[in-house]
Protein 1
Amino acid sequence: MVKKATPHLDKLLARVLRATSHYGEKSNLARFIGVPPQRVNDWLNGGFEPSGETTLLLLEWVSAAEAKQQKKRAGSASTQPALEARNQKSRLNEKPKTSPEKG
């Protein structure tokens, strides 16, 4: 018989589900914990509830996976200067235009 998961466990499993959405991540998680990949699927689908120690390992793994994702996003386009700011910088580096001499 499966017990109803607590709200905290539900939130953790939702984080794990997001972190394992990429190919091969469920297998990586299963290897980290030392269980067959099907067991990870059972937890995520609500078929089984992980033990207390396993829950701590899930939290450790998902925290590391999320931190890794944050590092990947650090250089994304959204953190680059706006186009206007970049254009201003490039104009500052241009040579001044000389006006034709009147003679």
Protein 2
Amino acid sequence: MLMGAIAAWVFCEKDQSVVLMTVSAIAAIGCLWTWRACHRYAANLAQRRHDYTGEFYDITVAEADAIPDWIASVNFCFSVLSLTMLIIAIKI
């Protein structure tokens, strides 16, 4: 998410295309949304455990594996897009 936000900021500072800045911002928001959705799936499953403490990273590997593949794939795509936009922002 941070990569997309930095790329959007760089595009804005360099007065580059609004389209590039918008794509970077959308990629950053998409990363944040899908990351939150992934965490919510795992946390919902973790709450069923008797030793769940409610800590942010109190999730086991099995619970993390319960995240639907489509959300993980969308998260990966947004992350790659954020990285690509950051590389483009640095190169321009």
